[in-house]
Amino acid sequence: KILILDFGSQYTQLIARSIRELNVYCEIKPCLQPIQWDPSIKGIILSGSPFSVNDPGAPTVDIAAMAAKVPVLGVCYGAQLMAKVFGGEVAKSSIREYGRAFMEHENKEETLLYDISGKSQVWMSHSDTIVRMPEGFEIIARTENIPVAAFKSQPQGSCPLLGLQFHPEVTHSLEGKLLLRNFIVHICKCQQDWTPAAFVHETIDRIREQVGNKRVVMALSGGVDSTVAAELIHKAIGQNLFCVFVDNGLLRKDEFETVLDSYKHMGLNVKGVNARDLFYGELKGVSDPEQKRKIIGRLFIEVFQQEATQLTDISFLGQGTIYPDVIESVSVNGPSVTIKSHHNVGGLPEKMNMSLVEPLRFLFKDEVRRVGREIGISELFLGRHPFPGPGLAIRILGEITPDKVAMLQEADAIYIEGLRDAELYDKVWQAGTILLPVQSVGVMGDERTYEFTVALRAVTSTDGMTADWAHLPYEFLAKMSNDIINRVKGINRVVYDISSKPPATIEWE
Ligand code: XMP
Description:
Blueprint: E1 2-6, H1 12-21, E2 26-30, E3 43-46, H2 63-67, E4 72-75, H3 77-85, E5 89-104, E6 119-132, E7 138-141, E8 150-153, E9 161-164, H4 176-187, H5 196-211, E10 215-220, H6 224-237, E11 241-247, H7 255-265, E12 270-274, H8 276-283, H9 289-310, E13 314-318, H10 323-326, E14 328-330, E15 337-339, H11 348-351, E16 355-357, H12 365-374, H13 379-382, H14 402-421, E17 430-444, E18 447-460, E19 468-469, H15 474-487, E20 491-496
Parallel strand pairs: 1-2, 1-3, 3-4, 4-9, 10-11, 10-13, 11-12, 13-16, 18-20
Antiparallel strand pairs: 5-6, 7-8, 8-9, 14-15, 17-18, 18-19
This protein binds xanthosine-5'-monophosphate (XMP).
């Protein structure tokens, strides 16, 4: 595997994903955390950073000690740090380089540049530049504006040291993936055998080893992660996996029945629990968004726990935790190490004295889908838009009543079906309807109406952190407006949300 030491760059996860796409396993570690060496580590990549290497308190690491064991590649800040710690000089550049640049070289024989065009588009994002190389280091590529775009060195008794001033991990560096491949395959000598099939195989073995003949309980949500995780555990231990799928009354129209049915078809040992009235009862009169979330979270745990305690001899809790939830990243505000909160069923494992089984803990979302495909999970699950845990509760602004839920479910179903029919569903990242606490005047036939407004939301995004409103065709929006108003009693107005995130959020609450 490859270790990526994170110095806080926004692109660190992209390095990891590019390497995984080359079918090589890699892990991201905070730069200041001591390395746990093991023979599977074949190379190290030092990431970019929001710091300048000349900032007081800029994070630094012992690169020579690393290179004594494996090849090291520095990217952007990583390259500058390498130049600096070996005695070179880094300074603010007179020309700041951001965005497109062209790397030029004549070193066809150079392993890192193998098969890379003599002039290759790369993506720069730095204001510092290396003004003097350390002794023994050789420049192997430049750009029009900066003399050092790529360099290498191999001190005696050391593995190769390489540096790239630009970001090979972003798609705008057109041959960046090839550069990473040259480093990983030709210099670090990694085997490209990290495939979905290999992952499935290894994971099933690992689960069997961890769980033995004990029992696992797991909550399913209908989402991609919990479904793929459950199926992997199921493949490993069969009927010793017990699943619980809770109907909180806040799912999409008919979703509980459809999804429960699919789970049963997959052969999962699953119990569907209808807890609608409990949720509606406790949510009565509550309109504060945070309070809604808290109530739903608490009730979910209560219901799940009650089901779990009815089962005997349960030793493990299965979870669909994925890699972005557990990556320890370097805070942008300082070289301190911060750990993102892990999502788990709110303290349940300790309370119930269970250990965790998390088969997807080291996968990115797109890898979860690839693994899902490998084990034959239906596109019904794999292609599904994200849906928030609190469900329609945070899409009904103000107080929640069963009538409002039913109204919103109808409007939502028309919209989602409409998106599918128009082949727009897979073009947007997430879509849904929001019921506004606003009534307005309308006219239907000869009658005056005074009914609710529904907002349609559709966004494009890659991770939900930022999002743009989807520019859906007017004809489609016109059809949705007609269909919803004509078919859903209680709604006489439809609006389309044209806000991006930031400054808005995807959900309205
Ligand atoms: P926002 O509204 O913060 O949403 O832009 C970003 C993504 O997160 C989802 N979301 C949630 N998911 N529990 C969840 O499981 C929640 O409380 C929650 N709030 C928002 C949202 O649907 C979007 O995909």
